[in-house]
Amino acid sequence: MRQGEVASKGSWTGNPLGGVTAPEALILPDPATRFSRTAERLEALSTGHPMADWLRFMARLAQAQHIAATTLRPIVGPEPAAVQQAVDAGMPPLAADGHRRDPVWRDGLAVLLDRMEGDAIPAPARTIVAKLRELHAEALEALADDFLLGGVAPDDAGAALYVAAALQVYFTRLAAALPAAFLQLLPERGLCPCCGSTPVSGVVTASGSTPGTRYLYCSLCATAWNHVRAVCITCGQSRSLSLKGIESDTGAVKAETCDDCHTYAKMLYQAQDMKVDPFADDLASLGLDMLVAEAGWLRHAPNPLLLIG
Ligand SMILES: [Zn+2]
Ligand SMILES: [Zn+2]
Known about the structure:
Blueprint: E1 26-27, H1 31-46, H2 52-71, H3 80-88, H4 104-115, H5 123-134, H6 137-148, H7 157-176, E2 199-204, E3 214-218, E4 224-226, E5 241-244, E6 253-258, E7 263-269, H8 280-284, H9 286-294, E8 298-299
Parallel strand pairs: 2-7, 7-8
Antiparallel strand pairs: 1-4, 2-3, 3-4, 5-6, 6-7
One zinc ion binds at residues 232, 234-235, 237, 258, 260-261, 263.
């Protein structure tokens, strides 16, 4: 199997003389395009979709994230020595549950709340936005901690959408500023090497010098990392994997199910559609999640923007 890389912010490190090239182990996100691409793709996928209104709402949120990601003041990331220390210990340098947040993430939340108002937004969402605006810093930090530690209370699920979206902006900007040369994949290959979060989906490339590589995309910081194909991303077994899709669609989105650990993860195939986006296509293929869940497989990890179910 030939392996390739996804053209992104990272420079290409292939061998110009030809021969076998190794895929890049990880590709840091580019905050200038990460959210605008998702917004564009969600808009495109909404046409004729049974959940068109919701996808357009999520496109609007992604567009608001783009504005936050490209206009907020710079964040000071961890010192290179601290990054090196974490990497040497096999730990993610931005460990989402242990990282001390810069309050700028709340400025990002304010940008999102400003953009998610008006008649285009359904009334229940406007109520949640209005409530969030009244919360003090400590309450917002507590919501962020609950989200990052996986303990969002059912009553807070609506608010958690915006908190999660603001934290995606924050961690994406932080990851983008990490010293790429220091970073390494974690011993636990199913987790993000920058922040330790679970992936939202995987993309199997069809472009670049060596197509056919699988990259998992971090659900929080959008870092992409190489993960061997035909190995379950949850339990590492390869005995009982299979791909399930919806017959009537393009075949670009499949659920990779594992009968060893009874989980599944979404995989997107550029060979079927070069425009797949790991965040947008995951949301737009909720129907596939429902089918696979009904058949008894558990999703490997939730999409952070879908905690409300
Ligand atoms: Zn991450
Ligand atoms: Zn498994």
